[in-house]
Design a protein that fits this description.
Layout: H1 6-20, E1 39-42, E2 65-71, H2 80-89, H3 92-95, E3 97-102, H4 108-121, E4 124-128, H5 133-139, E5 147-150, E6 161-166, H6 169-182, E7 187-192, H7 197-213, E8 218-223, H8 230-242, E9 247-251, H9 256-266, E10 271-276, E11 286-292, H10 294-306, E12 313-317, E13 325-329, H11 337-348
Parallel strand pairs: 2-3, 2-4, 4-5, 5-6, 6-12, 7-8, 7-9, 9-10, 10-11
Antiparallel strand pairs: 1-3, 11-13
Helix pairs in contact: 1-2, 1-10, 2-10, 6-7, 6-11, 8-9
Length: about 350
């Protein structure tokens, strides 16, 4: 895994964030854009990454920078999408941004329409969610004057198409090691959201991390098809708890409360992990999370875009810098932070090899 410098990593992270950022609670200056509706808010004022910057970045006039944000989920999910949305909106005044947002894009037709419409009206289009990568691969070349920044691995060789790809499977491996040590029952579970690379990679690496500690540990896993469906999350958690699982990695966003409800109703001492944001205060069962500083990534992405320094192709970010992405234990389980840090350090030193299909 290529190790990037702090600033390069943050820049990458920033783009990822921007890429995804369109999901928080609505800003007062914008209208509701849920259910695929578009609104505008105007401010008053690779895996083969190239070392050179792209020719597609950077505003070309002194007016507002027109930014289109497409999100594969809701902007108010309390996690991934919301963090990116908030990151963009926090920068409206600094960069004089005019932001158009379309969220809750759940089918390919809606994604294609949203990206096309945003590309026609904006200088830069940010895509939050790897489900948006295939349509971006197909559409970007049709809009050479618009810069596309996606999350996930994009097609190489398209000058105006960029991506910042968070490798969420790497911290999931760390979580697996901790889970195996914490579990008293010797059974752990993974509940995935949508069927996208980060879900499958996290599933594979979470299991691998656990089995590096206990090769015979019981492992249950399911992908429910949505990061936001709390009812599906609850059903999946109920099934795993009934099967004796006592540690769950809920790779969900707005669907996480459903898992918490299932644990509460079971009356059992089930430990819980979640991705992206600190949600430790939502339940005493949550003991750790994959910290991603998405606001910082968004900030650095705009810095690079406005200075015409967006890296070409896909830039991947794992756990090279703990200020960008790191497995973090909650206050109720801080005794396990040294274990998590030690595993992360071994991964960064090349002493632990990620399993095939992970990363």
């Amino acid at each position: 895994m290529k190790r990037m410098s702090f600033m390069a990593t943050i820049a990458a992270t920033a783009i990822v964030a921007l890429v995804l950022s369109a999901c928080g609670s609505a800003n007062k200056s914008s209208t509701d854009t849920s259910s695929g509706q578009q609104s505008t808010a105007t401010s008053n004022k690779s895996d083969n990454p190239s070392e050179s910057s792209s020719t597609s970045g950077g505003p070309t006039s002194g007016g507002p920078i027109k930014v289109g944000v497409a999100l594969a989920g809701p902007r108010n999910d309390g996690a991934f999408y919301q963090s990116y949305y908030d990151g963009v909106m926090d920068l409206k005044d600094k960069y004089n941004l005019q932001v158009s947002v379309v969220d809750n894009l759940t089918d390919s037709s809606a994604m294609n329409d949203a990206l096309s419409n945003l590309a026609e009206a904006n200088q830069i289009v940010i895509g939050g969610g790897s489900a948006l990568v295939p349509p971006a691969n197909s559409l970007a070349a049709n809009y050479p004057d618009t810069t596309f920044v996606m999350s996930g691995k994009v097609q190489d060789g398209i000058p105006n198409l960029h991506a910042y790809n968070m490798l969420q499977g790497v911290p999931a491996y760390v979580a697996g090691v901790v889970a195996a040590k914490v579990s008293k029952a010797g059974k752990i579970g993974f509940i995935g959201g949508a069927t996208i690379p980060s879900t499958s990679q996290s599933d594979i690496d979470f299991e691998a991390g656990a089995k590096s500690v206990n090769p015979n540990i019981g492992y249950s896993h399911v992908t429910v098809g949505s990061f936001s469906d709390a009812a599906k999350g609850q059903q999946a958690a109920m099934a795993q708890i009934a099967d004796g699982v006592d540690v769950i990695y809920a790779f969900l966003d707005a669907g996480l409360p459903g898992v918490i409800k299932a644990i509460d109703e079971s009356g059992k001492d089930v430990k819980l992990f979640n991705p992206t944001t600190d949600r430790c205060d939502e339940s005493p069962h949550i003991i750790g999370y994959d910290m991603q500083n998405l606001k910082a990534m968004v900030a650095d992405i705009f810095r690079d875009y406005t200075s015409n320094k967006l890296p070409a192709g896909t830039t991947s970010i794992a756990i090279e810098d703990k200020d960008v992405q790191w497995w973090t234990m909650c206050p109720n389980a801080k005794e396990w932070q040294a274990t998590a840090d030690g595993v992360a350090d071994q991964i960064n030193a090349g002493k632990i090899k990620m399993p095939e299909g992970g990363m």
